[in-house]
Amino acid sequence: MFPFKTSIQFDRKSNQALYLQLSNQIIQLIKSQKLAPNTRLPGSRTLAEQLHVHRKTIVACYDELLLQGWIESIPKKGTYVHRNLPVLHQQKLKDDEVFGVNNNADFSFYKSSILPKIPTEKREDFMYLNDGISDTRLTPIDEIARTYRNVSSKKMIYEHLSYGSTYGNGTLRNVLVEYLNSTRGLNITKENVLITRGSQMGIWLSAKLLLQKEDVIVVGNTNYVSADFTFLNQQVKLERVSVDKNGLVTDDIEKLCKRHQIKAVYVTSHHHHPTTVTLSAKRRIHLLNLAQHYNFAIIEDDYDYDFNYNHAPILPLASHDTNGNVIYIGSVCKTVAPVFRVGYLIASKDFVDEAAKLRGYVDRQGDALLELTFASFIKSGDLDRHIRKVMKIHQQRRDLFCKLLNDELGGFFQFETPIGGMAVWIKLHPDYSWDTISEAARKHRLEIGDWRQYDAAKLGHNSIRIGFATYNEEEIYELIKRLKHAITSTL
Ligand SMILES: Cc1ncc(COP(=O)(O)O)c(C=O)c1O
């Protein structure tokens, strides 16, 4: 008889019922062939006595195993391990592997050789440079939580808890129509709005709908690196044009149009990513005219529209587009906090319809409760109040950061104080290298990050983008101190 008494162990502190603990252990014994097919199992009374449990536990366990097909009950004979069970070929796991989380899949799958992994791990004692993100300590989390609670306690909420529109929540779409028409000078209706989970989803959807293998998309010779990869993942030809103090050089785009059929131009017109420059009015008009003439799409990524320190925000290209050339993309992720994955893609109705359809197959729908929360947050004026509040703080941080950069590190860097956004574009003196400095910085608990991402075109400009908005005054002093120590230690 199989030694159940020594093979089965119960954890009486566990939340798992005893009959399930027993059935799981019997399954393991069957899988490991310690209990072979056709083995007779003891009667419920006998096994209950052996294991010191109630007979009902054994009956429930056998019922469970019968239901799952591991055992069979043969009338007048007894209960047996199912005679037709095939042998499960299990690989012996290495010591550090836990069952079910083997490190290597036993099937082939496609790994992208284009998309790099997005780094997420952080050490607590380190300071990390970023390319311009907000300080989450300034997030109006209480107001948002209160709004979320109010929204969720309404009677009509139940309809929003089910499957909904792939276009996003209707209330938010309506609120955005009003908000974007009045703040961005757009002239849209609800039909032109698709709610996304942040700008990145808008870029991805646009790439999927506009681009296929060998298609040409134009970007700056410095460009937002995630957009580059999103396009490259479509196996496109990325044509890079120069960026100067007036933004993308549209004359270069015109020259390209004469040579190739261009499907799209990606532009961060408000504050070019990474250099922070603004696309001039002349070039805006030129680009719109080119788009109309050569029938290409302009993907306008207005990722940090809200933060302008010396002037009113500049209206996007989308506000001048009457021909349906512009796909306008934005989100609350920079303005409020990256965790709130609420963004929008604004375009002609036919494009929005197709994007909504596609979105439904990667992410069935957005988070309707969060979308309703933001609808209310925007409509009540809370978003604008938040923007006004943080803008003052950002401006002070920008001023301090740029002052210290100048006072403490002026001999090493060249930069313009940005008129908007949350980052500075900093050129390191050609005698020094970011490679050496970032290695030295690590010794001072400062992570500079992948500085090469800013020079995908290998121009050798020796510049990187450093965000200032995330750090308070004390942290800005600390950051500059660490950077200075790092640089001077390399001399
Ligand atoms: C230029 C630019 N576009 C888009 C994004 C993505 O933003 P979101 O968090 O809204 O997806 C970022 C984020 O860093 C960005 O810098």
UniProtKB/TrEMBL annotation:
Signal peptide: none
PROSITE patterns for the chain: HTH_GNTR (PS50949)
Sorted UniProt keywords: Aminotransferase, DNA-binding, Pyridoxal phosphate, Transcription, Transcription regulation, Transferase
Keyword Transferase applies: yes
Domain HTH gntR-type per the UniProt entry, residue ranges: 16-84
InterPro entries: Aminotransferase_I/II_large, HTH_trans_reg/aminotransferase, PyrdxlP-dep_Trfase, PyrdxlP-dep_Trfase_major, Tscrpt_reg_HTH_GntR, WH-like_DNA-bd_sf, WH_DNA-bd_sf
Chain coiled-coil ranges: none
MF GO annotations: transaminase activity
PANTHER family assigned: HTH-TYPE TRANSCRIPTIONAL REGULATORY PROTEIN GABR
Family recorded in the similarity comment: In the C-terminal section; belongs to the class-I pyridoxal-phosphate-dependent aminotransferase family.
The protein's name in its UniProt record: PLP-dependent aminotransferase family protein
